[in-house]
């Protein structure tokens, strides 16, 4: 009986992943057509379900696939409405070790050095971050609102 219960839990997790993937496909269709991709996982920590999400751009050269740095200004017209809808529908959590506020993680490339910077959803929605270069956007969905 305990194995059946575990299987039922996995079905709930995977249906959550499928729902989030559908949400992303429906709301980021334009940038997905331009080479962006996403990854949604599920993890359980002490009974709490988390869905880590990562959105990044991929460039294919032959059989190689490389992650590409992109400019915020190139994607903000698609990403801002997506973040607004996402923030209304789901409860989001932070990756930031500095604070517990809702953040997006981006890496800014400056003179061959990688610097991690953390931006809140509000900063991205309000477009107060300037035209930065981003390696990926990531966040954790902890549930529906």
How would you describe what is shown here?
This protein is α+β, with helices and mostly antiparallel strands and 145 residues long. The chain has one domain (2-144). It contains four helices and ten strands. Strands 1, 2, 3, 4, 6 and 10 form a six-stranded antiparallel beta sheet that branches. The chain has a two-stranded antiparallel sheet with strand order 5-9. Strands 7-8 form a two-stranded antiparallel sheet. A hairpin with a 2-residue loop joins β7 and β8 (113-120). It is globular. Mean pLDDT is 77; it is low at 1-11, 99-103 and 107-113.
Produce a short descriptive summary.
It is built from four helices and ten strands.
What are the defining features of this structure?
six-stranded antiparallel sheet, 37% helix, 145 residues, single chain, globular, disordered N terminus, 4 helices, alpha+beta, two-stranded antiparallel sheet
What is the secondary structure topology, with strand pairs?
Elements: H1 2-27, H2 29-33, E1 36-40, E2 43-45, E3 48-61, E4 64-68, E5 70-71, H3 72-89, E6 90-93, E7 103-110, E8 113-120, H4 121-125, E9 133-134, E10 136-144
Antiparallel strand pairs: 1-3, 2-3, 3-4, 3-10, 5-9, 6-10, 7-8
Count of DSSP E strands? 10
What portion of residues belong to β-strands?
35-45%
The overall pLDDT average reads: 77
Shape: globular
Helix content range of the residues, please?
25-40%
Q: What is the number of independent domains?
A: 1
Q: What oligomeric state is this?
A: single chain
- Please compute the radius of gyration using only Cα atoms: 16 Å
Low-confidence segments? 1-11, 99-103, 107-113
Number of discrete helical segments: 4
Largest sheet, described in full?
Answer: 6 strands, antiparallel
Which structural category do the helix and sheet elements fall into?
alpha+beta
**Order of H and E elements:** HHEEEEEHEEEHEE
Distance between the termini: 32 Å
